[in-house]
Amino acid sequence: MTIRLLICEDQELVRTGYATAFRAQPDMEVVGEAADGITAVDAAERLAPDVVVMDIRMPGLDGIEATRRIARPDVVRPPKVLVVTTFNTDEHVYDALRAGASGFLLKDAPLAELVNGVRTVAGGDSLLSPAVTRRLIGRFADRVRPAAAVPARDPLAPLAPREREVLRLIARGLSNNEIADEMGLGFETVKTYVSRVLMKLGLRDRVQAVVFAYRTGVVRADD
């Protein structure tokens, strides 16, 4: 399957570098480019890409709001949005995830890592590089607070004990292999548990699972 890509980046040199790297891949096609958020939203609606590579800081409409519009619930088949952020300056990673981003990478990541990240997102395994995930969670999780109101129904009620543990480990940024080692399970068994957790909680991907875990107090910033 060819992965259709839309590149949203205001710096022409960076955007050209991304496009060159993607076009060199046999399984990728760059269907469009955008230098601002408004153009990105319009292009996503017109071109129906599989993955949108989104910068956070763009003129006109920032990447967070652009992501929110591209991945809004009423879109029948929303593309996966891969946010590329500058770790030391962007303070909006969590906001981007809540807006519907399916994953994120650091802007100084090698192009090869970005290319593999696109494949990962396109395949639905949305929480990229566990090491990066842990760093970002550690930096931004203190911005996430459990919901103040006590729900009438336990949000974790659909999950069996093992599935709750898998959710907790996902929220800590562990990969499937690391979860398997932690729990003493086989890799395929962990994949099945992850799928069940997402299905039972009505979550789109692992990123939403992380947000859910922090919002419901399954894990806290100081865990």
Give the uncertain stretches in residue-range form. none
What is the CA–CA distance across the termini?
Answer: 40 Å
**The CATH homology group name of the largest domain:** Response regulator
Helix/strand/pairing class, anyone? alpha/beta
Biggest β-sheet description? 5 strands, parallel
Q: Which architecture of the largest domain does the CATH hierarchy give at level 2?
A: 3-Layer(aba) Sandwich
* Succession of helices and strands: EHEHEHEHEHHHHHH
Bulk shape: globular
What number of structural domains do the residues give?
2
Rg is 17 Å
Give the total of beta strands. 5
Descriptive overview:
The protein is α/β, with parallel strands linked by helices. The chain has 2 domains: 3-126, 3-Layer(aba) Sandwich (Rossmann fold), CATH 3.40.50; 148-215, Arc Repressor Mutant, subunit A (Orthogonal Bundle), CATH 1.10.10.10. It contains 10 helices and 5 strands, in the order E-H-E-H-E-H-E-H-E-H-H-H-H-H-H. It has helices spanning 12-23, 37-47, 63-70, 93-99, 111-122, 130-140, 161-171, 176-183, 187-201, 206-215, and strands at 3-8, 28-34, 51-55, 80-85, 103-106. It has a 5-stranded parallel β-sheet, with helices on both faces. The protein is globular.
